[in-house]
What does this fold into?
Amino acid sequence: MNRISFLKKLDGVVGPFLSRLFPVTSSVGSLLRDVQRILIIRPGGIGDAVLLVPTILALKKAWPQADIDVLAEKRNVGVFALCPHLAQVYVYDSFCDWPKFCFKKYDLIVDTEQWHYLSALIARLIRAHWRCGFATNSRKRLFSHVVCYSHRDYEAHSFFHLLDVLNVPHPASPEIPYLEVSPEDRHVVDEFLTQVSQPFVTLFPGASIPERRWPVERFRQIANFCREEGYGVVVVGGHQDRQAASRVLSDGAGLNLAGELTLAQSTAVLARSDLLLSGDSGVLHLAVGIGCKTVSLFGPGIAKKWAPTGQGHNVVNLQLPCSPCTRFGTTPSCPDQAKCIQGITVDMVKDEVVSLLIRG
It folds into this structure.
């Protein structure tokens, strides 16, 4: 069992009990104007981390003199290399980092975890004047400022609600682009992209769970269609996606970058791409944050919470009565072979791709 799985199991067993050992944190008045040190806690996956960046930028704008630290996980820590306004980034599941942040003192701690207890307990134990978080269960006892959490809100807006309770101004919606790629990563990617015809589209055939995985054969057909329309094709992903990416490109020319790039370098590819086709994934949110057009495939996931909105983003969702079924990051096993994803046809996706690439 990896450390995160262990911590989640431990969290579910002892978290509710430990949270009740602390007295209820009193709600306090307005924040000091002179906030100097802020800690943002963000466990979880890539998508949550990406959609948190606009909130970090708003905090920095409100208190430009403040040092902002982030406590992340190994699986999402790469996102914060795309947010240059941070003082330190610590790793939640690297225990050698704990002495580095546990003994610091902050003016404000913002716990952006939506459900689990451990992050709220850490926020309560670290010295701070104010602590802010979501009131989803008894973890609310540990914060001075709490806000409700809804599955009906786009996740970036959920994080903005934390700013509302702190009286921190923010835009109505994230200002695109809000991720920044370094010149060094852009240079590395430019070298790779000399191998593919321009302009190009990017495909990501991976998924965190089988219920979100659109068949590789259909990605291959979309790749062929894009080439017929005069576009190069690039496939991105991790090492675990390398074989699927090879199958996507088996019928023709294309560039397989799965397993070849860092997260920041993959984002640099998306910054150059005309469009990304992806399921509900962290890569999808990276594309949104860097300003790339997207076609996304939704089924088990909550589209209202996770699907990109606005011009340049088309969502394919069959909206079956049984979907969405995911809650707080957990998707139950599907008794119906994930028809919400498997029922999406190649023609449906072609129509959405054409509407963005051909018709603008």
About this structure: The first helix runs from residue 3 to 19. The CA atoms of residues 222 and 285 lie 21 Å apart. The longest strand covers residues 127-134. The radius of gyration is 21 Å.
